[in-house]
UniProtKB/TrEMBL annotation:
Lineage: superkingdom: Eukaryota
Species classification: Eukaryota, Viridiplantae, Streptophyta, Embryophyta, Tracheophyta
Name of the protein described by the UniProt record: Defensin-like protein
Organism: Hibiscus sabdariffa
């Protein structure tokens, strides 16, 4: 790999991590006046490539809002459910 490709890959990974952290922060944000234990952290079922329909699989597991694929890159997505 050339230096330019390595630098580009590093920048992509850093942006992916930052975006994921922002998304997770928004998923677990606690409204003002609510206790710390009241937030809903996502529950992940596994790789999205192994779950044919992430949204429906989460509904079937008892998460009424379904689920989405989250991750750092398209090759590293996990099926995560929200309640």
């Amino acid at each position: 790999m050339t230096g330019g490709k390595v630098a580009l890959l590093l920048v992509e990974q850093i942006w992916g991590i930052l975006l994921c952290l922002i998304l997770l922060r928004n998923l677990v944000a606690v409204p003002v006046g609510v206790g710390v234990g009241a937030f809903n952290a996502p529950v992940c079922l596994g790789n999205c490539s192994a779950v044919p329909d992430c949204h429906q699989a989460c509904i079937d597991k008892g998460f009424p809002k379904g689920g989405v694929c989250l991750g750092f890159s398209f090759s590293d997505l996990a099926c995560c459910c929200t309640s």
